[in-house]
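Bug report (template v2)

What were you trying to do?
Predict the complex of my protein with heme C.

What happened?
Run completed; filing so the output is reviewed.

Input:
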Amino acid sequence: MQENLPKYTVEVRPPKLGKPPIWAKYGLYISVCASWIPLAIIVRARYSRSPDPRPQLAQDMGTMPKYKEQQSSDVFIDGRADRLPIPGTVARGEAQEDDHYYRGYETEIDPQTGLRQPKQKIDPKTGKGETIFYDTFPQQVKVNAALVARGQNRFNIYCTPCHGYDGSGHGMVNERGLELSGLTDPDAQKPEATWVQAADLRSETVRNRPVGHIYNTINVGIRNMPAHGPQIPVADRWAIVSYVRSLQLSQNGTVAMVPENERGKIKAAPVTQPSTEPAKTTSEK
Ligand code: HEC
């Protein structure tokens, strides 16, 4: 069978390739070993710490020299990287010059010190200076149902723990305060216990307060009540004021305030009396 096959398919060819040269052999070993070096560097980089930023191919301003909050810095004498605003400077749009909207009372510049201070009017009876609070809502504030609804929402979050949902001053904090001090039970009363109840917002005193006064109370607090300015934005403070006013109205309304054609509905509704009884307190400060 072999005789029939063409000659060149069976004849043993002489080998064309010789042995690889010695340098190629060792070169291959070296390059295989060298290919592990980048891997070793990466592994080392992942598990070691360094004060230098990591190498980054695309810079993208990812590693700018910068200070983060609360860091220290040798550049400034006080060693702080955080800088306070320079005294006397005001950020753009933060001047808050509108007394009516931002403060609720009138201010003036003291000619001697050059500082802004509350304007005073002398009470003719007592001869004492009094701050002049605005008794109207500022023009930026549109008093409508939406504002009062927003005010109710914010009031229920921020004010009810102390003042209660009806504004009577019987919020949960008050009830618990009375309980802890034993003021509700004369037998358990602790001699040193005092408790200042949150004011009844429907009382005559608060009803006679100008809206600017109530705004200021929310903003900076009053006597034993803490300030709420830091947590409630200006617009919401005014919304709450509008709701406080509507709370007062709703519980001190007279039939004369109701339009004639609506009066029949009131008489038909069951009468519920709000509790106006003040909680007992040992000290009235
Ligand atoms: C931590 C409890 C607490 C919270 C919360 C609180 N108040 Fe008061 N508030 C008081 C106390 C206590 C007084 C009475 C202060 C005093 O007489 O020393 C008071 C008094 C007042 C007065 C009467 C001040 C006056 O004499 O004219 C008004 C108005 C008032 N609060 C409104 C608010 C509004 C609005 C909120 C919600 C933004 C609020 N309060 C949240 C505790 C609180």
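What did the reviewer find?
The pocket of heme C is lined by residues 158-159, 161-163, 173, 196, 198-199, 201, 205-206, 209, 214, 217-218, 222-226, 228, 240, 244 (CB under 6 Å). The longest helix spans residues 234-252.
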